[in-house]
What does this fold into?
Amino acid sequence: MTTTPEKAAAPVETVTVTIDGVQVDVAKDTLVIRAAEQIGVQIPRFCDHPLLAPAGACRQCLVEVPDAGNGRGFPKPQASCTLPVADGMVVNTQATSEVADKAQQGVMEFLLINHPLDCPVCDKGGECPLQNQAMSNGRGESRFVASGSGGVKRTFPKPINLSPQVLLDRERCIVCQRCTRFAEEIPGDPFIALVERGAQQQIGIAPDAPFLSYFAGNTIQICPVGALTSESYRFRSRPFDLVSSPAVAEHDACGSAIRVDHRRGKVMRRLAGNDPEVNEEWITDKDRFAFTYAVETDRLTYPQVRDADGVLRPASWPEAFTVAAEGLAAARKAGGVGVLTGGRLTGEDAYAYSKFARVALGTNDIDFRARPHSAEEAEFLAAHVVATGPEGGAVTYTDLESAASVVLVGFEPEDEAGAIFLRLRKAALHHHTRVLGIAPYTTRGLAKTHGTLLPTAPGDEPATLATLHDHAAHGIDSTSVILVGERLATVPGALSAVAALAATSGARMAWVPRRAGDRGALETGCLPTLLPGGRPVDDPQARVDAATAWGVDSLPEAAGRDGDAIVAALGAGELAGVVIGGVDPADTTDPAATMAALEQAAFVVALDLRASDVTRMADVVFPVAPVVDKAGTYVNWEGRPRTFEAVLGSPSSLPDLRVLAGIAEELGAPLGFRTVAEVWSQMEDMGPWDGPRATMTPVPPAPSDFDADGLVLSSWKQLLDQGTMQDGDKHLAATARPAIARVTRTLFEAVGPTVTLTGDRGSITLPAEPVDDMVDGVVWVPQNSSGLGVLTDLALPGSRVTISGGNA
Amino acid sequence: MGSVDTLTPVLTKDWGTDRSWTLPVYESRGGYASLKKALTMAQDDIIAAVKDSGLRGRGGAGFPTGMKWSFIPQDNPKPKYLVVNADESEPGTCKDTPLMMASPHLLVEGVIISSFAIRANTAFIYIRGEILHVIRRVQAAVAEAYAAGHLGKNIHGSGYDLDVVVHAGAGAYICGEETALLEGLEGRRGQPRLRPPFPAVAGLYASPTVINNVESIASVPSIIEHGAEWFSAMGTEKSKGYGIFSLSGHVTNPGQYEAPLGITLRELVDLSGGIRAGHQLKFWTPGGSSTPLLTDEHLDLPLDFEGMADAGTMLGTRAIQLFDETTCVVRAVLRWTEFYKHESCGKCTPCREGTWWLVQTLAAIEQGKGQESDLDLLLDQCDNILGRSFCALGDGATSPISSSIKYFRDEYLAHLTHGGCPLDPAASTVWASSLTRSGA
It folds into this structure.
């Protein structure tokens, strides 16, 4: 059962209203301010926002209502942002009513008396609703200055920090409450509130609680004046000097629409785009502020080859292509070449790696999963995820709102997929969706979605999942959705249990990776078992189909090695070479092993944006374009392609696919494309696999080791952490949640406020925090918020660590 | 029209009694008899009695109390609440405060009967935070009532339970606005709520809620005791019953005078010993500073809802502030306007910004600065606030200004030609005569 429940809603009931003499049919309960938009009348407004609850605070949108639909009019002008239409209602806006026009002009005059009118130095000047509407609905000259003995404005000291990133200029604020309503209603982070009263009323924070919301930047965008600014953008450019380009955020798998504002080839800021189907009008602060990584000083700008003396030196593109091709050909002869890709690839780039591996290197040794992974996961993805999408009935954002319940397993939306978190919160608040979190403790995110914790230690997820069908309190059925995080790959039997629960209950499931490129890499066959379009490698028909599309005689038949196996084979000398693109060894299952494998490999070709441990060990280094410099497509968790054009045109900044095409040509195995458009056209020609899907062989859960010593390590990456794609914005970094270890209260009382955790890879010392509902025997730490990250410094999540109080 | 030439002490009848605020004294004078009677009545009959009595809200707006009670949806599964608005803060208004000081049990008895009628098992008395003594009085009375079995579980064997919570406000005029009061009672910032939903449907804790003024609730026991007809025999056709008239300012004996609605100011001034000796009435407010002021032309108008509406003002809280000819109307209006500026909650633009500007314009005129056109500007500012603000606080802020310019435009202009106030501010004080004698 995969149809969306309650999708076929009853036809919308409409009413007929007359606005400025024009009759219009609008949906029942539409607010007058939006009904007027339908006849092309824009009523000025400040506090009104379509995604926030009506407030009626600014009074800018007053209209005259001579007939409320019952034959009687309102004696006073009405706020059109709080007034729902009624059948037969007659509304006269400023376009036809002198009363409405005067009321609006009066409110505008009031708004401006205490406003500093510092538009020439204000960041908002040029894109300011107050400025614009003062022009359209206000008087040219203020009567305030000339009144009495000369008007005296209320003043405040200039901006104060609401957070390390968000600044408040109280003089400019018109206290419309959009920001406070956003913070309370949308992410559920009510760290800002009104304080004081009358003209002294202002937005404030508690002394010990700054506005540390992952979504704080949205308030800057919806502020209708220049009161809220970011440290990152304040005083850096004027709106009318900026070019705005639509784009897609590259920091997670949400596919959030963004707008990139740039000036003379430099990105100045990013804003949320408006996509009601996906991220509505909200993005995370990471999507908003984390873009300076592309202009860090270690950005690679030219190819490099390693000389005989062992030193990397600059090289021309043709030389680098030749050297890379020769080295790879030799490595292929000496055992083979593996391909490891990271999470930043566009679908087109991923396709190029996938085709490059098969056609130019003759191998299926390719894996996009630069993180702990498993064969069970590859089977799950091939059987249940690849080649699905909204058009085929896969789970969408909108489905989260209509689902009766949503199970989260191996997945923390607030940290790992912000747009899903916001949509889940909306679903829980407005559509009574029940959120069930399979996790070791109630996270802040789960609490904010009013979720129920199903307390589960890492490793025990299969057991919890097995109880859900027919569970009396939270039984899962066909109206449920299961959201599976990529972390679940490391729990044997967990993805099998998810598939079994979905099969028996009829619940729908969706897989949510952390990274923007992962789903596209899956779709294009960056897996040892899959070719593009979900063609199983072990299906001869599928191989023939792909070979035909690619114009080659045959494709390698043997299933390839996965990421861990490629690393192992490199280390053991079974593989001689590796093409590695955008992989941070610290993210991989065993960072030390990955580094050793790269050291061991006879020939390493690295494609990367910035100098890294990988490029320092490579034999040939190719610079590749950051996402802002190239067109492409991300496939988001829904399976929805999110295509975007290049924001900046930089002829020296080439996408991965162009580099791979160049090497392949030198290898004598041309890929048949050099541009993004050519790749896209190849992918379209090839299409998805229409033969039988791969199937999954269930994996049994691992036996519990209740008696083992130590604590089970639970860990995931927080939204803001030490990730290299957040480099360059210290203000953003300062809003990150600190690295702390979360333990049970009992344990906290035993070990104290500072703890040292020791695992098989080392020890870390962190402040500890007690969590009341933490599952016994579990400790949680953020995966990449301190040191070199948990995978390098401590242990693999899910394994055992020991704890002691104080510093080691 | 009922008799208006005598006082009708009902709410105030015990005020002169020694220790009138204690339970024994209150009961010795017939207190809590109405409660016992009410508990034997059908609840709908109590609502009907209050409806039939014609009692209209004594907090100023004059909405029929019984009708308000009947709006409570009895099929709503949520708890129902009674909230008593004792946040008396309107300048000039001082009726609920002495009532709660002298006869707190009258209020408590009214609360119990009213809560019983609307099927509320919890009632709140929201008292203005500044009047600490009153809060203690009411708290003590509630404690006495619990001890005597008038409150708590199974009141007098009726099977009816009621808890009363006395809540101290935090000092904001806006919390007298009923939805802002509810916000405050819920522990939030005191700002008015969007309506609908109305409190009768989703009020306190989103549950059906009746909010009544102290005097309205305190009137209920007498209606139960004497019947609706007794009550409606007093007052005028549409403004039934009695009410407390609070006279303050330049009268010989300021104070509370309880009389049937429809009494005239002339009668009240006579009862209070006349205007301050040697002076004449200049202007007065019928119901606090938010009601447009009147002059000596209006001495014979009936003080009821209709009479005041006909004169372009409102009966309000019957807070009659009287000013004689020594008072500068500009100065008085400026003081009131400063009050509204200080008390504006800040939620909506017209009230927040408008009061800020009004004070500046008025203050300049009072000092003889500014120009004649500022009077038109003031009126235009008022026009842009009145009916444009979120709640009635903004409307109230404009009343003294527009009404005073209507009646005393020349006095405003005199400030401009005189280069300041033409009147001696000391002359309006109570110590004016001593100043004159000492030659100051």
Notes: DSSP finds 25 helices and 35 strands in chain A. The two ends of chain A are 54 Å apart (CA to CA). Residues 1-8 of chain A have pLDDT under 50 and may be disordered.
